[in-house]
Amino acid sequence: MSHALGDTATFDRFARFYDWFTPEADAEEFREALSFADREVGRVLDVGGGTGRGAAALGVRERIVADAAAGMTRQARRNGFEAVRADAAALPFVAESADAVLIVDALHHFGDPGEAVREAARVLRPGGVLVIREIDPTALLGRLTEFGEHRLGFDSTFFAPEELGRSVADAGLDAKFRTGGFEYTVVGRA
Question: Given pLDDT bands bounded at 50, 70 and 90, which one contains residue 118?
Fold first, then answer.
């Protein structure tokens, strides 16, 4: 798997308690990001979705969580989501099979983030959107988060908004981003 192995193992161990310590995803932020789609969004893949925190913020017909940590996919199923254990850099979905792909606070944990972005673009239907929510390492709180994650043993790699925007554009998507403090969102439309 191209996920950072230590990160996957850590999330696997703490999956049962993950929802206790993480805030709910910002539903309004996701609705705004999904509005960039040129199609109705009925099928969403939440890649690196853990327990389904990102998918939970959306009121769409079909929400599938894909995560490398077996414990996270088990917890996502307990939370009522369809969930598959999958490497973000080799998604087990056919091309053009999703209306939207979410990657929420997870890309920095992937072993090959560039390939994960390309895979997300591959599974998007024309007019669909990739929504990536990340922590900005150029902001003070972002730098502190990065430092803290490394101290906890995570193998995290954070990206500045412009850098991630270029990666999304390089995957063939029309990329836009907006910052909001130490977190930002990049949206790429297929």
Answer: very high
Q: For residue 147, what are the contacts with CB-CB under 8 A and spacing of at least 6?
A: none
| Global pTM value | 0.88
Return d(Cα 98, Cα 86) in angstroms, integer.
Answer: 15
CATH number for the domain that contains residue 27: 3.40.50.150
Apex CA 64: angle with CA 161 and CA 95, to 5°?
A: 75
CB atoms within 10 A of CB 38: 12
Print the domain residue range for 173. 5-189
> Which residue has tokens 């913020």?
57
- pLDDT score recorded for residue 156: 86
Nearest to 84 by CA among 100, 68, 96: 68
Task: Specify the number of domains making up the chain.
Answer: 1
